Amino acid sequence: MNKRMKKENEACYNTVCFSDIRVSSGKAGAAGKSKKSEGFMGEKIIEEAKKVNLTELFYDLVFVFGISKITHILESLNEGIFSLKEIIIYTVVFVCFISVWNVQTVYMNRYGKHNLLHIIIMTVFQMPALAFMAANVSSDMEESWTAFTLALLWIVVIQFLQYIYAYMQNKNSEKDRKLIRDFFQLLFVGMISIIVSLFLSGIGRILLTGFGFIVIILGAIFFRKDMARVPINMPHLIERLTLLTIITLGEMLIAAADFFEIEKFSFYSVMIMLQVVALFLFYITEFDHAIEENLPCQSGVGLIYNHYFVWFGLNLCTIDLDYANDAMGIARVIMMFLGLFLFYLGVFNNAHLNKKSHKLDKKLMIPFVLVYLLGLGSSFIFQSNVPVITVLCTLTIVLETVLFVSFVIRHFPKEIRKEMIGP
User: Fold this and answer.
1) Is the pTM of this model over 0.90?
2) Tell me: the pLDDT tens digits for 355-398?
3) Mutual angle of helices 386-410 and 267-284, in 10-degree steps
């Protein structure tokens, strides 16, 4: 990953950073500060952090509804079993929703503006279709899959038309037009897969739709150089990714809050809430403190890919809480620790973007892996005892968070450590 990032940065410096000045619109959240640096030939590189606009935040609300529906697809877990059909539907639907969000986010990052045109495209043309898709998500979607995919096709066509508009607006920038043509290809594959799936039946059409979106996701790998020539606005992308992560954590919080009803409230309710809080602290420690936002000329592809692991992981942990009962047994252990594995993998895969002082080392990773394995092993031993599993999972998550947070704080200068910890 480090070698790939190095090559990407070199390509970017050679083609963009030392030949022109790239200015991204907007401001960095409330700060609105721009970063200036110099190239080998003395040109100024000016990068302003693009502000996440209110329409993007409003657009995210429909994904709150969508994610809440997706977590209830795996109904067979109530009996402690895994249904292959439900797993396929869950995976494909999750990938479809998140990919739609990612395509729109990347478009807004590079070419979108907070004007009436883009507001209408996102709210009037896309959100009703997304709400329709979310409302019809269930564990048995074979009958409603045609309606679901027609709404999905509508959104992909709208996003394709957005890039046509961007192509027309960038007549004088060949590097932008080249990148937009790359997106034409990816979205075209998605549209074709959806259209063909409409003529199939059974689980095959669901798999074909999923295949089309996997091509959209993985296809971006082949266009990394083109993306590096039109760098992603990293602060904007990180803020957008963290917002969707917070939404996913919010769904987990709702699942945890169910245990705070008077009839269900106990010591274990607090344990479950600690799991959510610890995962939140773990995530923001990486993306609020350890990561270097001002890395030059990033494509953003790796950051997005790694967040698929983060979102899938958190969603699996949420499902585990939703269906927590004695019948689940080993299924619960698998769901929770698979979710944690994906979450930690997604976060740590971004470590190559960390500040130089916060690169991961053996002093952190060895105890981190040992804590995870001990938690997993002991949970397997007590798989039939839900309260004990709850405590073991909580201890594992809290200890992992303490290890990582202390590692990050310890590697900051003394004055910054004081500010992070408090007065």
Assistant:
1) no
2) 988 999 999 999 999 999 999 999 999 887 888 888 999 999 99
3) 30
